[in-house]
Target: Programmed cell death 6 interacting protein
Amino acid sequence: MATFISVPLKKSSEVDLVKPLSKFVTATYPAAEEQADYIRSVEELNKLRKSALGRPLDKHESSLEILLRYYDQLCAVEPKFPFSENQLCLTFTWKDAFDKGSLFGGSVKLGSGAFGHIKDTVLSALNREPTMDISPETVGTLSLIMLAQAQEVFFLKATSDKMKDAIIAKLANQTADFYGDAFKQCQYKENLPKEVLPVLAAKHCIMQANAELHQSLLAKQKKRFGEEIARLQHATELVKTVASRYDEYVSVKDLSDKISRALTAAKKDNDFIYHDRVPEVKDLEHIGKAALVKATTITPPLSAKFTDLFEKMVPMAVQQSMSVYSQRKAETVNRLVGTMREATNLCNGVLASLNLPAALEDLSGDSIPQSIVEKARAIVQQGGLLSIEQLIRDLPELLTRNREILEESLKMLGDEESTDSELRSKFSQRWNRTPSGDLYKPLRAEGGNFRSVLDKAVQADQVVRERYNTHCEMIALLCKPEAELTAAIPSANPVKTLQGSEVVSVLRSQLAQLEEVKKEREGLEVEIKGVAFDMSSSFLTALAQDGAINEEALSMSQLDQSYGSYSQRVQASLRSQEELLGKVQASHQEFSKLKQSNSEANDREEVLKKLASAHDSYVEITSNLREGTKFYNDLTEILLKFQNKCSDIVFARKTERDELLKDLQQSIAREPSAPSFNVPAYQTNPAPTAADPTPAPRTVFVSSQSSMGRWEERIRGQLCTKEVTPLRDRWKCTGGEWSEIGVGCLKKWFTVF
Model:
């Protein structure tokens, strides 16, 4: 059986995928049905990992199918979850595949492309130093080895099928080249097992010998008998090199015998019959090459039976684009709605300053204008002072809760970062993981943004509170019974001459038009808030076609299409209001000239203005306070997610820290406590006294060495002095008799060689 180099399966420790992935699903997908489906898929993924890595796999195609399905599922899952050190952080611990066990076994799947994929794709995603078995140098070498072995399989198949010698020679020569390239790649590297280098060197020579053997048969067919002998002689030298240097790893007896028989027969025939001149090896024509293999690109899915457990879940790139699109949409809606509300507030402020429409309703001079009565009734229905004061009292509590969540989250990061810094200072370069300070920069920046948002919210709350203090007296007056409200408003002489005037009719018509504009805005606001468009299909299409999503271009195009007409309608509404307010102000000037003016009328009008303004302020302050309450409650949910994110990454870092500490402690424990030193000869070789019996020679094992001294010398070359010396002393001190312990230990060590 041909000797092939195989790579043992890497071993990993158990990782709980259910808890962190389910936590992400719960936070990201609020819909109950969707959430339940994804959590079941998470549990299936965890089972699949345990099947692939949690138990020994049989050497069967079914075991390979399990690994391929798990790999395919990982490839499908990766773009759908935010796996990173500062988001969804999972710590996987892998052992070096070469830490023990032999590299040599039977026929295995060949994997040049797989190792190339690891080198070009996988290593760039690692956030810490890879184990030696998957370092760039190692996987590059393994890729070349697998390529050479794949080519050798074609050579063996061609030989078995008894194809033409010219073809077999070219296949063998190309195989020799591949092995030579692999040998050069790992010649000065010590991260592969020691058996690899001699096997590659041996295979290089063996394949050259096979190429020369089959090329010699071709020369014989063409009656070039001197060339036949030269090639067989070169092949003989090559197999002798292998037999003398690498016989421990590869046997070439059959090939050597075959070449020897062919060379003996060729020399005999040439000496007695042909007398053809035997050329020098350097003068021989170069053998051609035929490469039938190449490293193939790894393109999932690799399993024909693969079904994505998270097929309905959109990739993270789409999720992130959807999130940004939602923000852009919210900003667009808020801008349009905010513009309309500002215009309405401006309109109400102008009318309140003109005491409209109360001035038109107060021509009698002693009754409460109907608009004031309606405003007072509306405030009472909304809860009056008690409602607004309760909202004001709630805000500080909500603010304090949010600040506590934020500060606790940042404290978690700070505590873990301090621990990481202390351990980095203690272990120096051995503490080879990403510094927490660098890792937490995005989270700290996010926390800083939250703190800034809270500070601005506090300032906004103060503005609302001051406005309430300004108008609270008049708001309280509007909350009183109608009789008390009537008594609080100064009376004035009636203005009966204006009751049937044209200017009053014009003003009332203009005010009615303004009310119509405001009602249209309320309907327009509902329409704008109700616009819905699912961008996920657009983002998925872009991702499938281009491999990336130009979120900004796609989002802005859709937003322009969805809200362009609404923006035009908002601007038209603003223009109508501006035009009407101009007319109202002009009509009011004429109305004021006709109205009889006196101090009592002025006092009454001033109070009515304040009452109208108090109503408008009450409505706006109540709206602001409710928006503020909703803002703080929504922010609480966001901050709790931020806290969970911080908690998860701190827990993952703690788990990683514990693993790294364990490895470092084991490494330190294995290190010698003192440097090696030479023991004086008189301590290791005490002169025997006259009374001591002369130790008789004793054979411990059947060995190829002729003496105990040579065998001990071989051990001394492989093991450190301090390990061999105690056994040697024990042997000499017992008069050549090995104790049971000594023999057991030495047997154990002997198996190493």
In short: Residues 599-670 form the longest helix (72 residues). The chain is about 70% helix and 0% strand. The first strand starts at residue 4 and ends at 5.
